[in-house]
Amino acid sequence: MAPDREPDIWLPRGLLHGSTLADRAPTFSVIYLLSYSGATIPALVAGQLTSALSLPQISLGYGALALASALFTVLGARDPYATGCER
Questions:
Q1: What is the DSSP code (8-state) at residue 64?
Q2: 3-state secondary structure 13-61
Q3: How confident is the prediction along the chain (87 residues), in pLDDT tens digits per residue?
Q4: Are 42 and 62 in contact (CB under 8 A)?
Q5: Are 16 and 27 in contact (CB under 8 A)?
Q6: Closest Cα partner for 59 from 75, 46, 41?
Q7: What is the rounded distance in angstroms from the CA atom of residue 52 to the CA atom of residue 55?
Q8: Torsion of the alpha carbons at 72, 73, 77 and 83, rounded to the nearest 10
């Protein structure tokens, strides 16, 4: 391997495209923060709702939130320029 080439390891290339090595640490720290916030915030809300709602109701709320998130992701990830099946 050439000394000026980075090791061939898996990187989220879409997020790191065009970034320098100095920009990668802040990028990964934001990803880390958002990932843990996405898991922590609903858990904190569910913990506060335990005094007013039962466990099955909270579980249904989690399921609805997961379904809405998945639908949002699928609709947001579509290619707006796709014209059909291309080979």
A1: H
A2: HHHHCCCCHHHHHHHHHHHHHHHHHHHHHHHHHHHHHCCCCCHHHHHHH
A3: 445 555 545 556 666 777 788 888 888 898 889 889 888 988 898 899 999 999 999 999 989 988 998 999 888 887 666 665 555
A4: yes
A5: yes
A6: 46
A7: 10
A8: -60
